[in-house]
Amino acid sequence: MAGVPREQWTSKSGFILAAIGSAVGLGNMWRFSYLAAENGGAAFVILYLAATLVIGLPVLLAELVLGRGSQRSPIPALVHYGGRRWKPLGLIFITSGFLILSYYTVIAGWALRYGLAAIIWGFDVDAAAHFGEVASGWDAFAYHLMFMAITVFIVVGGVSRGIERTSLVLMPMLFALVIGLAVYAATLDGAAAGYAYYLSPDFAKLLSPSVLKDATGQAFFSLSLGMGAMLTFASYLGRDIHLPRAALIIAGADFAVAFIAGLVVFPLIFALDLSADVSASTVGALFITLPKAFAEMGQIGRGVGVLFFAALIVGALTSAISLLEVVVSSAIDNLGWPRRRAGILLGAVIAAIGAPSAWSTNILGAVDQVANNIFLLGGGLTLSIFVGWVMVGPIEEASEGATGVSWFRSWRNLLRYVVPAILLFVLIYDAIPSTFKTIADLF
Ligand code: PHE
Is pTM, for the whole model, over 0.85? Predict the structure, then answer.
């Protein structure tokens, strides 16, 4: 608090890469591909792009404005602009951080295990049985802990020396890996069938509220919105950065990586005739179908698989960092804890909260739905109302450092009317009822 100056990014591009690192992660590869497979391929991609532009982009700019303007973590940022009665919203953000990171590192742990095992032994042909063995229980828990330890180590290093430096190295690597894999996938025999499935829309699916919910939820999850992650990263920014432009770059890069990941996943699945496996998709789809494809492709498959899991691990790591940073930065700002203590202690607590998800993929799936459908969408709804109606002078704050008139003139109206209307519809019509159903099915 007073006395210690706030940490800062060393460069604007450092911030942009870290924010893209937060956005690009398991959401772009694991979540995006199973949702696209489930919801009729291109129909979902179109809706998801629309949700990114109409809902994701305005909410992203809202978070950036709140963070940069207040120079604080979520709770004091909301109190700064809205008074003390907004504190509970900040607490909900922190809770989301705990919840999402707790199972995010479990999935990242699966990826870590698959990547390491592929280097040492290769992929198992009986992929479904293998997934069943390693995705829950002590194995999953051990890799979950390992992944959490790496995340803690980087966050404890600080904003510029830990997070920024890691992103500067890892993000270019991730882009190269994903693009390289897409180029390789294009050379496969079945690639055309994969593209046909991925890129030709089934328009009948566009009108279902559940596809709309999946697309909106995916835009939020993938852009790290609705829980203060982007807000927290922006709180380490100076006043000279063009926020609307930064928001466009972050959203554009995030969509591009998801789209390219689809160009990797679908050709692979169709080249090996595994599409029937995908239609029965669950949280495990990517971890069953792709390793099966890699196993059937022999030594080349093994190499490609290692690179694929490397990309997944890198993406997951830079996202996990941002999730932990939300709670760490809150402990520093609100409780006066030193960064080191906050990182280690909170990392340990969150790892413990993740134990049930490491024990059962059904629990993991349910926690993912609660976090995404209720917390992120609900957080986004409140956030758009906050910046749309409560905060004084958001346009002025967004214009600071932004030269020239841009699209964001209509930004506040989107936040006031369009975003809340769509989010309310999605929440009431599908997100809340379907989440309760998932929870009921657990018992
Ligand atoms: N955006 C990350 C991904 O796509 C996940 C995430 C959600 C990160 C919320 C931070 C906050 O994998």
Answer: yes
